[in-house]
């Protein structure tokens, strides 16, 4: 319990006796954040967490009106946007915060990769972060179908068809996702269950582990900075870093509010499974680079279907990314090395160029 002469009120002392606030205060004052020319990249982790809380809050509000069936899903979203006060705004904030969260998550991941902050003892922190990235993409994929509009329907049809190209288990995975052979109301119900129950449960567990490890090991310092600094510079997490983090959160909130107000999310036409697919159907921007890469592959590569080669390649690429802390032995020993830095830069260029081509090429079919 805190000493009675400390400048705290009666409420603080009451809570301290029951939940141990003094121990939390002691831990917060003890935590230090490294200060160097790359410190700005530390803020993207907190910004991603902030946008995730926005997702949870707006997602809960949407649940009050959403009905997860092919007959009612589109109409329930239409009612929410047209009849419910500020319903359109809540939906727009939910959609835009999902996009911003994945963008800041990409920035956070690549900043950790280029700064080599995955070095020991932070290997598990990196692995849990890659797991959270996969879950975020899962949220995006399953949430996209829920309004049951034309664009989401055909994009999901293409996305689940690609899943079917996975060797050996492809057919099983496609049927598992679709709840049958085709995208139907069963797919919608299945995606809804995954989106609001399965993925949140997995995320809370993995996010708890990730945050615990970040607190335990602190922020990593790049090897180059570590070698140059005789006496590492730091600043207190509370209040110095926390106040700067709050500025980042407020900036993200301002961008989010502007996007939701000036570019509200459209609903489009209701999905019609018997209608032909519209020309130029495209996935969400964070899947575009994979979509374009598969499109550019020839139909046959050394006797194997090109799409299968592409899916296997992306799977191996994801595995390689997951194992980076265990493969980069020079960074683990604190030695200079540029191989994994160039791999990270090459990966960023690959994503940016293919995404750009995906949005600028004229669709012909």
Describe this structure in words.
With 365 residues, this protein is mostly helical. Helices cover 68% and strands 3% of the residues. The protein is built from 16 helices and four strands. It has helices spanning 10-19, 21-30, 43-63, 73-82, 87-114, 123-145, 150-163, 170-178, 185-217, 223-228, 237-262, 285-296, 306-322, 324-327, 329-332, 339-360; strands spanning 32-34, 234-236, 300-301, 304-305. The strands form two sheets. The chain has a two-stranded antiparallel sheet. It has a two-stranded antiparallel ribbon with strand order 3-4. A hairpin with a 2-residue loop joins strand 3 and strand 4 (304-305). Helix 3 packs antiparallel against helix 5 (87-114), helix 6 (123-145) packs antiparallel against helix 9 and helix 12 packs across helix 13 (306-322). The longest helix has 33 residues, at 185-217. The model has no long low-confidence stretch (mean pLDDT 91).
């Amino acid at each position: 319990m805190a000493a009675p002469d400390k400048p705290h009120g009666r409420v603080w002392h009451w809570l301290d006796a029951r939940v141990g606030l003094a121990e939390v205060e002691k831990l917060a004052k003890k935590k230090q954040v490294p200060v160097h020319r790359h410190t700005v990249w530390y803020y993207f982790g907190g910004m991603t967490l902030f946008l995730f809380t926005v997702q949870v809050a707006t997602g809960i509000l949407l649940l009050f009106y959403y009905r997860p069936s092919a007959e009612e899903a589109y109409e329930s979203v239409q009612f929410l946007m047209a009849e419910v006060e500020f319903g359109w705004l809540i939906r727009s904030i939910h959609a835009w915060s999902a996009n911003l969260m994945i963008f800041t998550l990409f920035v956070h991941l690549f900043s950790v990769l280029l700064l080599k902050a995955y070095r020991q003892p932070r290997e598990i922190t990196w692995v849990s972060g890659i797991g959270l990235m996969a879950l975020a993409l899962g949220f995006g994929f399953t949430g996209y179908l829920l309004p049951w509009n034309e664009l989401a329907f055909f994009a999901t049809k293409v996305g689940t068809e690609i899943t079917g190209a996975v060797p050996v288990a492809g057919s099983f995975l496609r049927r598992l996702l679709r709840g049958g052979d085709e995208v139907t109301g069963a797919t919608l119900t299945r995606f809804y269950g995954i989106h609001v129950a399965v993925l949140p449960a997995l995320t809370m567990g993995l996010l708890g582990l990730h945050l615990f490890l970040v607190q335990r090991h602190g922020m990593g310092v790049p090897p180059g900075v570590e070698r140059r600094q005789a006496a590492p510079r730091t600043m207190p997490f509370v209040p110095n870093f926390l106040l700067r983090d709050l500025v980042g959160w407020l900036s993200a909130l301002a961008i989010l509010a502007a996007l939701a107000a000036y570019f509200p999310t459209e609903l489009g036409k209701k999905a019609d499974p018997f209608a032909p697919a519209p020309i130029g159907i495209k996935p969400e921007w964070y899947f575009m680079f994979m979509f374009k890469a598969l499109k550019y592959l020839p139909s046959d590569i050394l006797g194997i279907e090109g799409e299968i080669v592409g899916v296997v390649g992306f799977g191996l690429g994801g595995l390689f990314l997951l194992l980076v802390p265990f493969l980069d032995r020079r960074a683990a020993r604190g030695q200079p090395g540029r191989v994994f830095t160039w791999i990270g830069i090459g990966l960023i260029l690959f994503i940016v160029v293919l995404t750009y081509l995906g949005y600028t090429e004229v669709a012909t079919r």
